[in-house]
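# step 3/5: fold
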Amino acid sequence: MRTNPVIQAAIDLTAGAVGGTACVVTGQPFDTAKVKMQTFPNMYRGLVDCFVKTYKQVGFRGFYKGTTPALVANIAENAVLFMCYGFCQQIVRRIFGLDKKAQLSDLQNAAAGSFASAFATLVLCPTELVKCRLQAMHEMKLSGKILQGHSTVWSVVKSVLQKDGPLGFYRGLSSTLLRELPGYFLFFGGYELSRTFFSFGRPKEELGPLALMFSGGFGGICLWSAVYPIDCIKSRIQVLSMAGKQAGFMGTFSTVLQKEGVFALYSGLTPTLIRAFPANGALFLAFEYSRKLMMNQFETS
């Protein structure tokens, strides 16, 4: 039985939300370290130093600063991303004159993922801005860039609204879009390529959990290895704009290169790559299994 398009979209949206939750639960401490090291590279000698200082200064809860907006960001992003991924796959089929049920190539799936990421960016940018500011709030106070910090999601949201209005939540939008479009081409491309490798001619749907987790992890590594410098600039724009007017993407990029050198763009890469494999493995495992479960429920009912 063919699933109704509206039901199919709802299933993809729900499965994407489940996957986003799994991603945050698995990788939040490493994401916190990433943002801290991106924004204040001179404060930390490396990942271990960042973990030790965070624990000494803020305690264990310091690793989970920004978890609420991170959950909202990942649930919203992945729900929209995977729902739009299904739509964009149909668009790609039309472009190439394929049947509605035709299997897409790995390259075509990568293109569909890249298109879908543009829609996800609109819900991701505001929530990621709040998350990044909470994660780097302690460093902003230590560096003297702000006198008084915010410790809750609502206090950050209120400060953005008071200072910049609703459009303030979209600081770093161009950087986010610049990261997402090529990043998700590689993300979905790497995932599908890895699934093709493990399937050995069998249908990809028959792959077990280990192959799915490895494929998701490989997709995550492909994404972050390629777009990390762009993400670094995005984090700086979203965090440092708390202290006043912040230059845009090209201005911030030029300043970092001139004052800190090219290696500053890769500060925090280690925790990002450590996080990328298990977090994205968990994302795709949760997505595929929850999607399959819901599809089976609707097809048998």
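# step 4/5: annotate
The radius of gyration is 20 Å.
# step 5/5: archive (pending)
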